[in-house]
Design a protein that fits this description.
five-stranded antiparallel sheet, 40% helix, Glutathione S-transferase Yfyf (Class Pi), Chain A, domain 2, alpha/beta, 11 helices
Length: 375
C-alpha cells in the first residue's frame, strides 16, 4: 500500500531575499522553475523549505533571509496529506514562518506549535542543492547533519538533546581553560554532556541503520554497475553515559588545549567506502554525484517510512553540468521518489518527465524576483 503524499497547495512569499511578493500554486507532481542565475529560483525553493521546517538550507542566520530594505519577511504555505484513493479531500493546514532580525516565529493554523520539532516534522521536505555534493566529498559535519535530520523524524527529542549537549560541552570547555577550575563544577557539566551525548549516539545509530538500509539499493540503481558501496555509523562517543563520563574526565588536560572535546558525538561520522576504500580518496566526480543522489533518495525513503507520508522534494540547479551519464543518474533518482517535486533549472527544455500527465506538471519562470506561469 502506497503512502500518502504531503502536497503544497499554495505558497505566499513576502520580502524574502529578492522575492517581494510571490504567490505559487503548484502542480501535484512536478514543478519546473526556470530562469537565469540570480533571478530568485533558489530563493523560491528556500521559501518552501522555510515554511515547512522554520529553517533555510542556505544559511543559519535568519536575518540574511529578509529582503534588503524590509524589516520582516515571511513564507506561508497551505499543505495537506493526499492519498492515492478517491476518498474525501484531506483537511488542509497553514504553516507560517515570519522572520524579523534574528527572531523566527512559526504558526500552524495561526497557533504556536508545541515545539519546533513538531513544526519541522509535520510537513516533511527533502532538499538537494549543489552544496550537498559535500556529503561525500566534504567533512563529517554534513553527514552528521544528514543523520540528525532523519533522527528528528524518528526521535523528535533528539534535537533538544543536541542543543543541551552543545551547551554543556561549551560550559565544560570554558571551565577547563580557567587557571584553577572547580572540579565539581566540571563534573556536573560532564554528566550533562554524557547524558545528552549518549542520547544523540543512540538516535544517530538508529538513523544510520534506517538510512543505510535504503542507501545501498538506491546506489545500486543510480551508480554504474560493479561498484560496491559500504556504509557504517562511526561514533565518536558512546551510548553508555557512564563510559562517556569516564572518557571526558580522562581527557580533561588534553581538551583544555583543544578547540573542543576529543570524545563525544560531535566527532561522529557516516563512513563511506567504494570497493573497500574511503570514498573521499577514490571516487570520481561522477561517482560522488551518484552517491549524493543515492544519499538523498535514501533520506527521502527513510523520512517517508518514519513519518508515514512521502516528503516533498526540492532539487536546485539540476541542469548544471548535465552530461548523458549525469542525466541518466538524475532521472533514475527521480524514479525512486513519489513525492511532489520542485526543480529549478536554467534549461527547462532539458527536464523531460515521461509518464507524468500534463495536468500533473507546471512550468514557471522567475525573472527579477517575479514568478510567471509558463504552462
Amino acid at each position: 500500500m502506497s503512502l500518502p503524499r504531503v502536497l503544497l497547495e499554495r505558497l505566499s512569499v513576502r520580502h524574502l531575499r529578492n522575492l517581494s511578493h510571490v504567490d505559487l500554486e503548484p502542480a501535484r507532481r512536478v514543478n519546473v522553475i526556470g530562469g537565469n542565475n540570480g533571478q530568485g529560483k533558489t530563493s523560491l525553493l528556500e521559501a518552501v523549505y522555510l515554511a515547512c521546517t522554520s529553517k533555510s538550507f542556505r544559511t543559519a542566520r535568519p536575518a540574511e533571509l529578509i529582503q534588503h530594505g524590509s524589516d520582516t519577511g515571511s513564507a506561508r504555505a497551505r499543505l495537506a496529506d493526499y492519498g492515492d484513493d478517491d476518498g474525501p479531500a484531506p483537511i488542509a493546514r497553514e504553516q507560517t514562518v515570519a522572520v524579523q532580525g534574528r527572531r523566527v516565529q512559526v504558526r500552524t493554523d495561526g497557533n504556536r506549535p508545541a515545539s519546533l520539532a513538531e513544526f519541522a516534522t509535520r510537513s516533511p521536505v527533502v532538499a538537494f542543492h549543489p552544496d550537498e555534493l559535500t556529503l561525500s566529498t566534504g567533512p563529517a559535519q554534513g553527514r552528521r547533519t544528514l543523520l540528525d535530520r532523519l533522527a528528528l523524524f524518528m526521535q523528535p527529542t533528539s534535537g533538544d538533546h543536541r542543543a543541551r549537549y552543545q551547551r554543556s560541552l561549551r560550559s565544560r570547555h570554558v571551565l577547563l581553560r580557567r587557571p584553577s577550575p572547580d572540579e565539581a563544577e566540571i563534573l556536573a557539566f560532564e554528566r550533562l554532556a554524557a547524558h545528552h551525548g549518549a542520547a544523540i549516539t543512540r538516535a544517530r545509530a538508529a538513523a544510520a541503520t534506517a538510512l543505510i538500509a535504503e542507501l545501498l539499493p538506491a546506489f545500486d540503481r543510480i551508480a554504474a554497475p560493479g561498484l560496491v558501496l559500504g556504509a557504517c555509523y562511526a561514533p565518536g562517543g558512546t551510548a553508555d553515559p557512564d563510559e562517556a563520563i569516564e572518557q571526558l574526565a580522562r581527557h580533561r588536560a588534553r581538551d583544555a588545549h583543544r578547540p573542543t572535546a576529543s570524545f563525544g558525538p560531535h566527532r561522529d561520522d557516516l563512513a563511506l567506502t567504494l570497493d573497500g576504500h574511503p570514498v573521499r580518496a577514490v571516487a570520481s566526480q561522477g561517482q560522488h554525484r551518484a552517491l549524493t543522489l543515492a544519499l538523498k533518495a535514501a533520506e527521502t525513503a527513510s523520512v517517508a517510512s518514519a513519518r508515514g507520508v512521502e516528503p516533498m522534494l526540492l532539487l536546485d540547479d539540476v541542469s548544471s553540468e548535465l552530461d548523458p551519464d549525469r542525466t541518466e543518474a538524475l532521472f533514475t533518482f527521480l524514479g525512486l521518489t513519489r513525492g511532489q517535486l520542485f526543480l529549478t533549472t536554467t534549461r527547462r527544455d532539458l527536464i523531460v518527465t515521461p509518464g507524468v500527465d500534463a495536468a500533473d506538471r507546471r512550468d514557471f519562470e522567475v525573472q527579477d524576483g517575479k514568478l510567471h506561469a509558463v504552462r
